[in-house]
Amino acid sequence: AAMRSRAEVDATLQTAKLNPAELLPAVHCLSFGPQAGGGECCLLQLEPGLCAELEAGRSLVIRGEKDEHAVLCSKDKTYEMKIADTSNMLLFVPGCKTPEELNADQASCNIIHSQIAGFSKNYWELRRCRPKLKKLRKLLMEDPYEGPDSQKDQTSTFSKYTTEDLLSLIQASEEEILHQLQVIDACKIEGYWRILDFDYEMKLLNHVTQLIDSESWPLSKVPLCACLEELGSLEPREMIEHILLSYGRKHVDDGEVFFEMHEDKICRAIAQMLLQNAIKFNLSEFEEVWQQSVPEGMTTRLDQLQGLALVDKSSRPETIFLLKVEDLPEDNQERFNSLFGIREKWTEVDITPYIQDLCAEKQTVGALLTKYARSSMLNGVKVYNSRRPIS
């Protein structure tokens, strides 16, 4: 491209009926460089927080397998990546000076010849999203840990997963993955993350609750050392400690480690054990058996079973059955389809535990119901049913 002179620039401004006095005196003359092909560059729009991450030298990671939509993760957040088209061509000009920089430097007030190194008609837009954590449990449930004596563990052909493996397979940030491993009570065995087989977990919990009972310890102060001493001959000590961590809160008193047992979580686990062997259970019979099955001093309440079991008030007599939120689909629409397939009309109280985890940041259950369900009144009670026919 021929280099423009100041006279040519001024003539162009005159033709365009622009007053030079209203413009900065510096002029960028653009020309395409030899390598200015489109498509080699990708633009990513970052919010200030993510920009600060990169400027501080931390990494952002793109995660997803071939059949999944890509997500971008910082250390503690997950973002959906979507391509946004622009109506204006975006040009990449190395060393391009902004008006602010030119204003500060009066000496640069002349013609600046700049080469365009590339261009783009779109950019990647990031939108904060829920981490996709359902797969984490699914992977670990392929091969649950049945205890040190299990023959299955010696012969299993299933993959086992380290933290590194999970980081490459799960579409979530490292902190979200580590937090979820805690939520699902996973534990590290020989360097691999495992979930305990439910029957084995119940066996361990039973050992602990029987010991608490026989020693008459208060549920708020169960001593770790004594548990390991007494039960170490029955099960590995790290498994005893894991079950105490899963079903209790650790605290140190006078240099000794104690656990305050979570009554609700223990009652919930025992309910699951009772319910998983029956398709439906007479509600009043279940409540009686359940209360008899929990450790001395604990009180069972139906609200301990939110997201685990559902009461059918329309059947005579009333029944209860197992319905675990973690077994439902992760996608919003699929989740609602699945719930409306199980029950046609839901009250807000009943459906809330099954959709609470779908709420995005600052989103309420009410907003989700407005979007995916329609409401009506049934015997003076507001109920929700599907917006679309359920096949």
UniProtKB/TrEMBL annotation:
<keyword id="KW-0235">DNA replication</keyword>
<dbReference type="GO" id="GO:0034088">
    <property type="term" value="P:maintenance of mitotic sister chromatid cohesion"/>
</dbReference>
<dbReference type="GO" id="GO:0000785">
    <property type="term" value="C:chromatin"/>
</dbReference>
<protein>
    <recommendedName>
        <fullName>Sister chromatid cohesion protein DCC1</fullName>
    </recommendedName>
</protein>
<dbReference type="GO" id="GO:0000775">
    <property type="term" value="C:chromosome, centromeric region"/>
</dbReference>
<dbReference type="Pfam" id="PF09724">
    <property type="entry name" value="Dcc1"/>
</dbReference>
<comment type="similarity">
    <text>Belongs to the DCC1 family.</text>
</comment>
<dbReference type="GO" id="GO:0031390">
    <property type="term" value="C:Ctf18 RFC-like complex"/>
</dbReference>
<dbReference type="InterPro" id="IPR019128">
    <property type="entry name" value="Dcc1"/>
</dbReference>
<dbReference type="GO" id="GO:0006260">
    <property type="term" value="P:DNA replication"/>
</dbReference>
